[in-house]
Amino acid sequence: MLVKTLDDVLNTPDHVTGDAFESRRILLARDRLGYSFHDTRVLAGSTQRLEYKNHIEANYCIEGQGEVEEVATGRTWPLRPGTMYVLDRHDAHIIRAETDLRLLCVFTPALTGEETHDADGSYSAST
């Protein structure tokens, strides 16, 4: 059995912050589960364009208000607690946070924790 807490991650290299986000990477590839699990905050007023070309990502909103836009169609969906969206076709998307959003995120294949966003908003394939 593997047991971790958010406190185990905070203020470690697995706690990554940027201008528009804070990613608390609770499970990573080194945990050998085939997926990674993240508790992510998207900061109020921010807009991020992302496209995970090498990963499938599922996101479940547990706090806040915002929206997600599918770049290919321009279609938008509101984000609020209880909303899930899945980037099952490596969809380019835009996240807009009206308030701080808190998303529980699952990536497959698992992220290593060393990734940084490329210019197009994606992560390179894990090795």
Automatic annotation (TrEMBL):
Keywords of this entry: Lyase
Catalytic EC class: lyase
Pfam short name (any one): Ectoine_synth
EC number(s) per entry: 4.2.1.108
Catalyzed reactions: (2S)-4-acetamido-2-aminobutanoate = L-ectoine + H2O
Family assignment from sequence similarity: Belongs to the ectoine synthase family.
Protein name: L-ectoine synthase
Organism expressing this protein natively: Roseovarius pelagicus
